[in-house]
Amino acid sequence: MKLLKFAILALFAGVLIYASNDLPYRGDPDNLMHAERSITDTPVKGNYFIQEAYNDARTPNMVTVVLGDYRSIDTFGEQVVIFTAGLITILVLRKQRRREE
Amino acid sequence: MKEQFQSPIVLLGSRLLSPYIMLFGWYVIIHGHYSPGGGFQGGALLAASVLLIRVAGGTRLSSLQLREVINTPMATLGVAIYFLTGVVAVLAGGYFLDYGQLPIPGLEAAWLRYYGILIIEVGIGLTVMAILIMIYDNMVKGEDHA
């Protein structure tokens, strides 16, 4: 049984290592995700973010602009999720005084 | 917690570290435009500085720093800052959360977006801080005798 576990782990490791051979090089400007037009000749959204983030919001950090400006409604949803999770802890975690019978 | 004791060394170390962690948290929030970081990360750091005192000093001592009652209003304030920024942009004639329409005079649209991002980051930081502290407070409720 232990041998089977290790065999499965080795199989997954082999699959991941094989798949990592096809990853693009980091920071290569010729990558598909950095191109202006995609394979099907439609404009790539990330290219607009890279080119216009500074001109739109005067902020050097592109990630902040995407998080706070272009995708701000998504960030608002994340904040509400955290807020709701915190309020639920009042119901779940707080110890109630046990009713004496 | 069956046995309880307070270590003055741990408390002193926590009191020394806590203000610097809180200052670094505000730095991460406000400097999010130029370096990695932002509301979520900075809020976690702010919560860390408060929780350090709570763990080291116990309930009675830490209520001098930040009382438990303030948690829920502070979290709500953070959400309200974010939401009202969006609503103000709507009232000024733009889309929801379109910072370019915020009614701050004397600034062009790009700089308005800059300050809009800053405002919402502060809101996110307040919410994350209050929620993390709230989770800890609700967990130790009734078990902390210090």
Structure description:
The complex is a heterodimer of chains A (101) and B (146). Chain A has 4 helices and no strands. With 101 residues, chain A is mainly alpha-helical. In chain A, helix 2 crosses helix 3 and helix 3 packs across helix 4. The longest helix of chain A is centred in the C-terminal third of the chain and has 21 residues. The mean pLDDT of chain A is 87. Chain B is mainly α and 146 residues long. Chain B has one domain. Chain B has 4 helices and no strands. Chain B is elongated, with a radius of gyration of 19 Å. Chains A and B meet through helix 2, helix 3 and helix 4 of A and helix 3 and helix 4 of B.
Features:
heterodimer; A: 101 residues; mainly alpha; 4 helices; B: 146 residues; elongated
Count helical runs of chain B. 4
> How many H/I helices of chain A?
4
Shape of chain A: flat
Secondary structure category of chain B: mainly alpha
Q: Kindly state the mean pLDDT of chain B as a whole number?
A: 89
Which spans of chain B have pLDDT < 50 for at least 5 consecutive residues?
none
Helix residue percentage of chain B: 55-70%
Radius of gyration of chain B: 19 Å
Overall geometry of chain B:
elongated
- The succession of helices and strands of chain A, N to C, reads HHHH
